[in-house]
Amino acid sequence: MSLPALVDRLRATLGVQHKLDIQPVRDLLKHVAPAAVPVGDDCAAIPDGEGFLLFAIEGMLPSFVEKEPWFAGYCAVMVNLSDITAMGGRPIAVVDAIWSRDAARAHPIWDGMTSAAAKYGVPIVGGHTNARNAAGEYLAAAVLGKADRLLTSFDARPGDVLIAAIDLRGEWFGSYPYWNASTTAPADRLRADLKVLPDIATAQLSRAAKDISMGGIIGTAVMLAECSQIGVTIDLDLIPKPAQVPIEKWLTAFPSYGYLLTAKPDQADAICSRFATREIAAAVIGSCNDQHRCELTDRAGESAIFWDLSREAFIGFGNALPETAAP
């Protein structure tokens, strides 16, 4: 498959299209009081005098909750912890909201959430329950965390390198685009792995990071570039991936543990070595520039623009898009 054809297929994926749905929120929040970190990051960051409280929330797709209630419950906790970690934080506690047709249908969801909370050592401390919802099962969870120093989506700079860190010790979860490197992993390993990004933030090795979301590696890179008002060039052949997984499938995957970070070139080895110590694959996959676009390249010498942020917004929370550009 040619690189331009791959770009077209990736742009059409549901994970990328869902990110475009965030754009209207930009206008709705115009009059919200300024925050320590602008809206559009993985978490809200609230100064508390000694650092930052981090606050995030995730909702699960109802179809996913219906078909895979246990795993949906597990993921509701896991993905929230990933958001906290992506900003250099350590999770403190989780709350949830479950709507179900009856208590029995909520039980596997609860079992999945409590299993994840126990594995990661982050308690569920409250929430909301409705067991009389005739419309079906709905699930959301929110998390509170704490950071001494922040990693944000707004602090990547031209001249930085782009690093991907992904736990490859997993397998696909059924037919879903979920790379499961969590449910069968030892609890002590999962807990220690969550500490890598906060430690990187404390050591001031990086300023910017983002967890790899349902938009995949490339969609996540575009969000990071848009918020930081930069461009990125990514070499697809440098992205860590399992040997037998096709690149297109991997680029649409949501990994249990996956992050993008930027850093000054002379800090890249120190960052990658911290992940290597945890047996997590990490590598420089590209660079940051001032072009306001995401460009993909490969070893065959092809290149293609995945997203031109100077002409087309992605999530909308960035100032790279000129006022005169088409919406």
Concise synopsis of the structure shown:
Helices cover 32% and strands 27% of the residues. With 327 residues, the chain is α+β, with helices and mostly antiparallel strands. Strands 9-12-6-13-10-14-15 form a seven-stranded mixed beta sheet, sandwiched between helices. The protein has a five-stranded mixed beta sheet with strand order 1-2-5-3-4.
Topology record:
Layout: H1 3-11, H2 14-20, H3 23-28, E1 44-47, E2 52-59, H4 62-67, H5 69-86, E3 90-99, H6 103-120, E4 124-130, E5 138-147, E6 161-166, E7 171-172, E8 178-180, H7 187-193, H8 196-202, E9 208-211, H9 216-228, E10 231-235, H10 247-251, E11 254-255, E12 258-263, H11 268-277, E13 281-289, E14 293-297, E15 303-308
Helix pairs in contact: 5-6
Molecular structure report:
It is a single chain. This protein has 327 residues and is α+β, with helices and mostly antiparallel strands. The protein has two domains: 3-25 and 151-308, Alpha-Beta Complex (Phosphoribosyl-aminoimidazole Synthetase, Chain A, domain 2); 42-147, PurM-like, N-terminal domain (60s Ribosomal Protein L30, Chain: A). Helices cover 32% and strands 27% of the residues. It has helices spanning 3-11, 14-20, 23-28, 62-67, 69-86, 103-120, 187-193, 196-202, 216-228, 247-251, 268-277; strands spanning 44-47, 52-59, 90-99, 124-130, 138-147, 161-166, 171-172, 178-180, 208-211, 231-235, 254-255, 258-263, 281-289, 293-297, 303-308. Helix 5 (69-86) runs parallel beside helix 6. It is globular, with a radius of gyration of 19 Å. The two termini are 30 Å apart. The model is unreliable at 320-327 (pLDDT under 50).
